[in-house]
Structure formats: C-alpha cells, structure tokens
Amino acid sequence: MDSNIEVGLQVADYLLQIKAIELKPQAPFTWASGLKSPIYCDNRKTLSFPVCRTHIRQQFVNAIQEKFGTPDIIAGVATGGIAIGALVAQEMGIPYAYVRSEAKKHGLGNQVEGVVEPNQKVVVIEDLISTGNSSLSAVAALREAGLDVMGMVAIFTYDFEIAKEAFKNANVPLHTLTDYHALLQQALKKEYITEEQLSTLKVWRESPTAWSAAYLESQSNG
User: Fold this and answer.
1) Would you say 126 and 153 are in contact if contact means Cβ atoms under 8 Å apart?
2) Average pLDDT, the chain
3) What's the CATH number of domain 3-210, 3.40.50.10540, 2.40.50.840, 3.40.50.2020, 3.40.190.80?
C-alpha cells in the first residue's frame, strides 16, 4: 500500500475512534453557517489523546521534511492549529509562531504572535481545511509580515473543489494527513456507517448547500 494512503487511513481511523469526526446522516449537525451537515469535525479533541496526538505530530514532521525540508519556523493557525503546531515545532527543534484570525485591537495590534523575521521560510500548520478562507487569511498575514510561505499541512480536508482552487490561486502547496475519501473508506470498513449512509455522505460533499436545503425540506414535509 502507498505510504500516503496508509497514513491517511490510520489518521482517519484515529479521528473516528476518538470522535474528533462524527458522521450522522440520519441526524445532521448544524454548522455555524446554519447549514445542516451529516459530518462534524473537531480535531482539537486529538490533543486529549496522547497516542493520537503523538501519531499526528510525527506524521506532520514526516510530511514537512518530505515535502518542504526543514523550514526556519513553524506557524500554527488559530485556534485549531496552535497546539499541534507547537508540538511539531518542538519535535523539529525550530522556532514557532501562531496567527490570529485577525489583528488584536489593543496592545501591539499583532496578528502574527511570536518572533518572526522577514524572509524566513515558514510551513503553516492547520487542523482542518473547509473552504480554505481562514487558512489562506493566515497565509496572507504571514506574507504581509515578510515571511516566505513554503506551504501548509493540515490534519483533514473535506476536499471541496472551492478549497482546491483557492489554494492553487494563492500559490500555496497543501498537504493533508487524511481526507474525506479516506475517512469514508475507513468509516465503512469499521462499520461506523452503512452503504446507504455512504451514498448520502458522497452526495453531501458534492454540494453541501443543496444537501442541507433538501434535508430541511424533507423535515418540513415530513
């Protein structure tokens, strides 16, 4: 088996085991946007499980060294990427900083927290890639501070086309430890979902907005 595929399945398995990702097509979650979704992801839960967080940390280190070599600094994206980013930087023995969602409105007014220098090569750590907007906002802040962004690594991506295009247009190489395809494969294998639910989850990823609208309509007509 290809090593990247093996890593993807193992990380997906951990995320399912600890319920960092939950799949409930029959009783969807409500996202902050108001959309109904059969999946909910909170990768901050990985921090509560030493075996899981250590595995993810080491896979991040392996991926960074393989894809980018050793950067001058690691930067985590608030809030999900802050802690795991610090663990990665500690393991690699290099400096660390993190990026706020927006600049502070008091004090020094920083958006990038930590000591950074112009022209430093940085790899950005993220926990989850959805549309890519917040992740790429962090990249923009680092570039504004004069850093050379080599790329981003993340735990999981929904693999939306809108995100793929956004990263391509921003010229930011993205590597994720696992993705939606690997998650569904592992979820079916370990019987977290049925074949029928698998079909529903595939339809959702093609158009989350349409899926949400259809679900809400079915409930109102039910």
Assistant:
1) yes
2) 94
3) 3.40.50.2020
